[in-house]
Write a structure and sequence with these properties.
InterPro entries: ABC_ATPase_C, ABC_ATPase_put, ABC_N, MRB1590-like_C, P-loop_NTPase. The chain folds into three domains: about 1-165, no CATH class; about 290-430, no CATH class; about 465-555, no CATH class. Strands 1, 2, 3, 4, 5, 7 and 8 form a seven-stranded mixed β-sheet that branches. About 30% of the residues lie in helices and about 20% in strands. The two termini are about 50 Å apart. It contains 14 helices and 28 strands. It is of the alpha+beta class.
């Protein structure tokens, strides 16, 4: 292993040489308090920055072992340290140079506490995985500037962020306790026959559609209705009260702009823990909850749509349905059936992003268009069967159709962001004003066939099997795979993780006819036990946790 003095000497020797000569650095260097490892060195100052690891021995970092004594605490501590590094580098002034010269970066976290690869903690070391823009003038190495970057500024950053004595112990403890309480609360849902919980005092509105921080002014703290109020004794927070949403069919109603979609938005991200001060720290949702929407134009491959769509014109079957350009109703049906295949226990829907003809067919339309001329069995006629026969609950925002009162177990009204339970009133109205529509579903979910991964998974024509991530899109060669409909993905690292997982599945020699759900659950379980490094050619610091549900959804959208 080389020393820091060797690194300084090498950098000075490289001064003025072509940029690719930086590749002479690909090795380990021992600093007084940490080890610097170069995993990948960029070939051009304008290319993706180099990837390095910084390993600080636990004897130097001096973090108390109790801070990572459980899986929940370890994830939260890694999240906290990632935020400390991200905050420190966001305010730093980069030196002069071309391209990415002088950059130090780490995966930027959102409001959620996620398991990421940016910081790894073992009993021996704390490891941070960074991106560094090696300095250049044009495309010539700026060796003296690189010495200042790697041998002066980087050690300062490490000392400020990966040394327990330099951090705020109380803030660390609060971060960990917030995450532990959230995991504990989520674990109580099924025990109490709940699918979601929203704590009193929660701040649900966000600043904007592109800013997930809590609304700073005029935000109405959540106040649970007495009839749905639950009390929990959390391990750290102590007594917490809030609204428990029971398993079954829940309909959220209310006037426009009164908070219906805001509540559902909070629930769809209740699958994640949130940082202290986010306002949603104690908004919990069933871990397998899936937000369902219509996605006109999406790919569908080999899905049995018959519970929702059958008897197509010309007697075309929907039991093995494939299309490259689905309609809104067809895509929404496929989204539900695909989520059921992977094991969801809760569907979340908002009429604003749903296909109307999939959600409801009223009595007048039934009278005008006979059932034998309408292939779609609307969701209203299957939602109860999903729960009674398969234990899958639904939370639905519905402001335009009271027909759902007939199938709802719970009805919650939002008025000025304040919830009221109005189940009894909704049932009385349903009796007073019967809808007189005829239920139209005649196919159950019992015979849903299992699907399996094709082998190979990705096309093999030229470079088309290479996966890249661009915004919320996977690039399969030059073919885009649009993942914008996967609303519960919140960080770029999750899209990169999906790309890594797809590449791994492509190169696996899977047994024939291995069910899709089984394969994906096994892969995610392997990642949890062995880490993402088992799937990557070198350690990567820009990946974040995904569920089998999102991985399956990405596979389902591959155009084949």
């Amino acid at each position: 292993m080389k020393t820091v003095q060797d690194l300084q000497q090498t950098l000075r020797h490289l001064e003025g040489r072509g940029y690719k000569a930086y590749r002479d650095l690909e090795r380990q260097y021992q600093f007084p308090e940490f080890t610097l490892i170069f995993d990948r060195i960029q070939g051009d100052p304008f290319a993706t920055p180099s990837q390095v690891r910084v390993q600080v021995p636990q004897s130097v970092a001096a973090f108390p072992p109790a801070l990572s004594s459980s899986a929940s605490r370890a994830v939260a501590l890694r999240d906290y340290l990632t935020r400390q590094i991200a905050q420190a580098v966001s305010g730093r002034v980069r030196g002069a140079g071309s391209g990415n010269s002088g950059l130090i970066a780490i995966a930027t976290p959102t409001q959620a506490i996620l398991e990421r690869t940016a910081v790894i903690i073992t009993p021996e070391v704390i490891e941070a995985r960074l991106q560094i823009g090696l300095p250049a003038w044009g495309r010539r190495i700026a060796g003296a500037v690189a010495v200042a970057l790697l041998c002066e500024q980087l050690p300062q950053l490490v000392g400020q962020t990966l040394n327990y004595a330099s951090l705020n112990p109380r803030a660390i403890q609060q971060h960990l306790e917030t995450a532990e309480d959230a995991d504990w609360l989520r674990g109580q849902l099924k025990k109490q026959n709940l699918v979601a919980f929203v704590a009193d005092g929660a701040i649900l509105p966000r600043r904007s559609g592109i800013d997930e921080r809590p609304l700073a002014e005029a935000a109405q703290p959540f106040d649970s209705p007495p009839s749905l109020r639950m009390t929990f004794e959390c391990p750290h927070q102590g007594r917490v009260t809030g609204m428990g949403i029971p398993a079954g069919v829940t309909v959220i109603v209310g006037g426009g702009y009164h908070g219906k979609s805001t509540l559902l938005h909070a629930l769809q991200f209740g699958i994640y823990n949130h940082i202290p001060g986010d306002g949603r720290e104690r908004v919990m949702t069933c871990a397998t909850a899936v937000k369902i929407r219509a996605e006109e134009g999406r790919q569908i491959s080999g899905v049995d749509l018959s519970p929702f769509i059958n008897r197509l014109p010309q007697n075309r079957s929907t039991q093995d349905f494939t299309t490259a350009n689905a309609s809104g109703s067809t895509s929404q049906a496929a989204n539900i059936l695909e989520a059921l295949e992977i094991g969801t226990e809760l569907l979340l829907m908002d009429e604003d992003t749903a296909a109307t003809n999939f959600m409801i067919r009223d009595r007048r339309m039934q009278a005008l268009i006979a059932k034998d001329k309408e292939p779609i069995s609307p969701f209203i006629d299957q939602v109860r069967r999903l729960y009674t026969d398969h234990g899958v609950s639904t939370i639905l925002v519905m402001g335009g159709s009271g027909d759902y009162f007939d199938v709802a177990d719970t009805v919650i009204a939002l008025e000025n962001f304040c919830p009221r339970e109005v189940t009894a009133e909704a049932r009385a109205i349903a009796q007073q004003y019967p809808c007189d529509r005829t239920p139209e579903a005649d196919v159950s979910f019992d015979s849903q066939p299992k699907r399996w991964l094709p082998s190979p998974l990705l096309p093999l024509d030229g470079e088309a099997h290479r996966l890249k991530v661009r915004d919320r899109t996977l690039m399969l060669g030059k073919t885009p795979v649009d993942l914008c409909g996967l609303e519960q993905l919140i960080e770029p690292g999750q899209y990169r993780a999906i790309a890594i997982a797809l590449s791994n599945l492509h190169h696996q020699h899977l047994p024939p006819n291995t069910p899709l759900a089984e394969t994906l659950h096994q892969l995610i379980a392997t990642i949890h036990t062995q880490g993402w490094d088992a799937l990557c050619p070198f350690p990567q610091g820009d990946l974040a946790q995904i569920r089998p549900l999102e991985l399956a959804a990405a596979i389902d959208r591959l155009r084949r």
